[in-house]
Design a protein that fits this description.
single chain; GMP Synthetase, Chain A, domain 3; four-stranded mixed β-sheet; 11 helices; 29% helix; 22% strand; flat; S-AdoMet_synt_N; S-adenosylmethionine synthase; ATP-binding
Length: 442
């Protein structure tokens, strides 16, 4: 049989390997500073015409999306437990479908928690107040199936609360990533930032009455044209904006499109990124009245790319919501983000990825990895050394340094519109840490 033949696949359907040439540094573009590239966007646009550009897309979903409803319920339970008992061990999952929300998992806490009230309050705050919008917070069925944390896990991780913070082991094995890029002031990918902010804006204009026809469920997606500048990502323009939002029966498609452009897109996407070629898909399916849990089932932890970097960087696969800080899926990703962000903010690299990995019950990470994508001012091995010397990746110490035992309404805020790039004092992992290193050698 010839090398290009396959017994079940016709030869014309076998394609040659895809050459990702756009990922290679382009020698025709000179490097710009880590802090001021966005001030000369016209020059960047001109450079893009001479260089290979590429398209990259990120999406987001609103707080009324069924999966995000579940994330928020899980984190509301976590907040309630930590508020009364900072040492609570929480692994709370949520699922939902028509007229039903269920919370289940393993929780060991001294707190007195009214799970049903938390579910109903969270759904009501989102806007699910009647069946016609997707769920009735006051009449839906609420199921609760919570057990205590396995004693086998407890003895291995925290020794039934006998271990000192530096001795606390990881709650499970796994690998987590943190990412940062200088393409936005938030040090986050522009495609992700815009998609996320569009979703948040949809909720804002729904709740303040600007667009009273809106309902809680909705999705956004933004495609950005980029140029690779020596490994750094330089956004040139917004290629496509997609918004699909739940609406009531009274509004027309033309009214939807006009309101979305005026009240959602215009306040969020900077004019410099829009041009006459920008494509807008606004409720392209034509009708989106049925939404929320009436339209789709929801489950905690199914929007992990939306929660992080919109497809940029990397992801270890572990979700965040409903997990206390001994779960390194969450705390490990938070400290990795702080490390990557601090590296970029310090000017050591324009783009940075940090990976950390753990074994269950073991405090010290198994590995720490750094990739500056060729944008580092010093070799990656030197950046790695700086990361290891400035950040403590042991779960117990992450919890202390980032103050992750604080509850209240802290973690529910992370459960919609992203865990990273947020300007909020509760997002302690977003604080840039001053790095100690030999600045002369750097």
């Amino acid at each position: 049989m010839a090398a290009t033949e396959h017994p079940r696949v016709p030869v014309p359907h076998i394609r040659p390997p895809l050459l990702l040439l756009f990922l290679l540094p382009d020698p025709r573009i000179k490097s710009s500073s880590a802090r001021g590239w966005w001030s000369n966007l016209p020059e960047k646009a001109a450079a893009a015409m001479a260089a290979e550009s590429f398209l990259f897309t990120s999406e987001s979903v609103n707080e009324g999306h069924p999966d995000k409803l579940c994330d928020q319920v899980s984190d509301a339970v976590l907040d309630a437990c930590l508020a009364q008992d900072p040492d609570s061990k929480v692994a709370c999952e949520t699922c939902t479908k028509t007229n039903m929300v269920m919370v289940f998992g393993e929780i060991t806490t001294k707190a007195t928690v009214d799970y049903e009230k938390i579910v109903r309050d969270t759904c009501r705050e989102i806007g699910f107040t009647s069946d016609d919008v997707g769920l009735d917070a006051d009449r839906c069925k609420v199921l609760v199936n919570i057990e205590q944390q396995s004693p086998d896990i407890a003895q291995g991780v925290h020794g039934h609360f006998t271990k000192r913070p530096e001795e606390i082991g990881a709650g499970d094995q796994g690998h987590m990533f943190g990412y940062a890029t200088d393409e936005t002031p938030e040090l986050m990918p522009l495609s992700h930032v815009l998609a996320t902010k569009l979703g948040a804006r949809l909720t804002e204009v729904r709740k303040n009455g600007t667009c009273a026809w809106l309902r809680p469920d909705g999705k956004t997606q933004v495609t950005v044209e980029y140029v690779n500048e020596g490994g750094a990502m330089v956004p040139v323009r917004v290629h496509t904006v997609l918004i699909s939002t739940q609406h009531d029966e009274t509004v027309t498609n033309d009214e939807i499109a006009a309101d979305l452009k005026e009240h959602v897109i215009k306040p969020i996407i900077p004019e410099k990124y829009l041009d006459e070629k920008t494509i807008f898909h606004l409720n392209p399916s034509g009708r989106f009245v049925i939404g929320g849990p009436h339209g789709d089932a929801g489950l905690t932890g199914r929007k992990i790319i939306i929660d992080t970097y919109g497809g940029w960087g990397a992801h270890g696969g572990g979700a965040f919501s409903g997990k206390d800080p001994t779960k390194v899926d969450r705390s490990g990703a938070y400290i990795a983000r702080q490390a990557a962000k601090s590296i970029v903010a310090s000017g050591l690299a324009r783009r940075c990825l940090v990976q950390v990995s753990y074994a269950i019950g073991v405090p010290e990470p198994l590995s720490v990895f750094v990739d500056s994508y060729g944008t580092g001012k010093i070799p990656d091995k030197e950046i790695l050394k700086i990361v290891k010397e400035n950040f403590d990746f042991r779960p117990g110490m992450i919890t202390i340094n980032l103050d992750l035992k604080k509850g209240g309404n802290r973690f529910i805020k992370t459960a919609a519109y992203g865990h990273f790039g947020r300007d909020d004092t509760d997002f302690t992992w977003e604080v840039v840490k001053p790095l100690k290193f030999d600045k002369a050698s750097a």
